[in-house]
Amino acid sequence: MIKQTKWFIGFGFLILGILIISASKLPQSTQYYLTVDELIAQKDQHKNQVIKLAGTVVDDSIEKNTLNASWTFAVTNNHQTMRVYFQGAMPDTFQDGAEVVLTGSLKEDQSVFIATQVLAKCASRYEEKLSKPLQYQKEAQPDA
Amino acid sequence: MHNAGNILLVSALISSAYVVGASLLGGIYRSLSWLESARRGLWTTSALIFLASAVLITALVTDQFSLQYVYQYSNSTMPLFYKFAAFWGGQNGSLLFWVLILSVYASLAVFFYRFSHLDLMPYVITTLSILQGFFLILLIFQANPFDLMPFTVVDGRGLNPLLQNYYMTIHPPSLYLGYVGMSIPFAFAMAALISGRLDNQWVIIIRRWTLTAWFFLSLGNLLGASWAYEVLGWGGYWAWDPVENAAFMPWLSASAFLHSVIIQEKRNMLKTWNMALVILSFVLTLTGTFLTRSGIVSSVHSFAQSDIGTYFLVFLVLVVTVSGGFLIYRLPALKSKNHFDSLLSREASFLLNNLVLVGAALAVLWGTIFPVISEAIRGVKITVGAPYFNKVMVPIGLALLVLTGIGPMVPWKKTSVEALKKNFLWPVALCVGTSIPVYLWVSHSVWVVLSFSFCSFVLGTIYLEYYRGIKIRIQNLKESFSTALIRLVSKNERRYGGYIVHFGIVLLFVGFTGSAFKIEKEIQVKQSQAFSIGDYTIQFDNVVPEQDPHKEVIKAQFSVWKHEKPFAYMDAAKVFYKSQVPGEPAQPATEASIRRSLKEDLYLALISFEPSDRTIFIKAIVNPLVQWIWIGGLFVMLGTFVVIWPKSNSLHPRSS
Questions:
Q1: A24 shares contact with chain B (CB less than 8 Å)
Q2: Is the pLDDT of residue B269 over 80?
Q3: Quick check: helix, strand or coil at residue B102?
Q4: pTM of the model
Q5: pLDDT at position B292, please?
């Protein structure tokens, strides 16, 4: 029985080791996840730091530069807005009103967020539209 | 439809409540008539759930847009099989699909064991009925797929275009079959704990059920990886997204169980550990679902946020408390009389593999829930990216790989130096023999060298096992090579089928290692301009639009040269799925073009097209060795199939 206990202590250390290694790797791989308002409030703290920025694309703010396939647009959390510059592959779900999560950083001049990656979601829009039935009521036919 | 669906769901809930009571009475009073009644009740619940599912599918297929669910996930122009697949395309339908699969599994289990395991079955039925009841409550009160639209519409919004792909018809069902399949082992584990029948009976029953669930989890994960690779347009197959992790964690813990169960069968050890693994696997499926459906972890698989998270959390706490409580209560009875003799024994190496697998699952869990913990404790929201998982999982994965080779070659109980030399001399030589050329000519990365060397080590051990087995049969029984091979596998299908799975795992590792050599380029090109990547020169020839009532396609055509020689024509497309709701823009999706070969894939994804100056923005990737992942996956499936396949004399499971 004592033998067995020794075993389990030994193996317990192994699991512990794996967990300690994984815990120690964590800080290098984490990024702050901020809303537009939070970023603007803590500009200095996050200057030049790679972060994730969550917000909604402001309607009619998307401009595409076809010369170098870059994009500028604005994101908001209903209060403050932030201009964003992005060059690269835009996901198919990116559009006005889309909820986006941007990876990137706020550079020295602190006015434009330079994004290196854009993730866009649209599922929540699916839900939202249900509460805005007006346009469908107009189009709806009586026998439908 | 609305009424019929709701009546069926409510009746099913009432029936499941009855079954919980009846099965408990059957168990406590050891009454066969109550057990019989519970059994029929479970079939009734399942039949009602089946009918409710049929109602929803009928509504989807016949375009009943008065139902909110049909409006949201279907439209009149979608092909029939996507209308059908919309059944699991949204949250509410997928929960109904979940409980439908649970009902199929439960009905089969109750049918198979109708004359056997009479002391376990009452509590198996209780557990399964509580599970059914939980999902029914969720469906009726929180995520009802039969809710009506608040206003009249003529057509629906259609399934999310990213989901309109043939993978949608196979990936979710396969993953769900894997996820839900873990419920049956859990039900038997609970039955063993409650009834106190803690001998090896329950473990032997659930081995095949766990294998089945594991088979579908593996298949589902592979199909998901393959889908991401072909459709999402980013050229990868695994991103450590919370939803992927949610499916990966139970796979890891179930893999651990499938190995440690062998030790319980052969040496009657690790009973507590096995019980804990079965509970852990089931709890991980619930946790994964909770994490991804509650919206507390952000994921690209964005299910709408809803309150079902709270329901899952409450149920999760209940499951952990009850199963954990019973486990502690039964600890004295689970004590094993045998103990480990030596570190150089198969049971020790299997236990080591178990700990590494569980450690891997915990490391993934840690990375997945860390954002939640950080927000709760420090009030700071953070994300954990793929770099964490890659840093942690690469060493863990390699440790597992090398154990894959060691485990089966070490004898039970204890071993001698001679035996080790006999078994490991050639594989180790092969391992070293691989590492030198890989280091010199392929890569100086220590991970790449280790991975390829370990792969050849494991291949060496598998070859040795087959070689010895076949040689003995040819010598002693005078069989031909092919007869010897077939008989060797079919006489001992668990062992040699397991080696086929291991062979597949090695190929998977070869494929994963290829990602170290990935070349990626995002580039803008004008018509008839060319660019180069790796050995390839790619010229953008033309853009061709195509159209049907359902979608518009923009297809960019390319001519590709390899080493200056004509190689292929490829077209990468952007597809715009039309919404049938007036005034809504079409939804775009990317269809990548992939030229596959065993050495490397050439991957082209069209990012955007500018009609005014006929310019495209294109992502080009050279992805080495990716095909080995799919080939390895096929071997994993084949091997699991060999292991699961019932022997002709054990078609009717008997009570032990």
A1: no
A2: yes
A3: helix
A4: 0.90
A5: 73
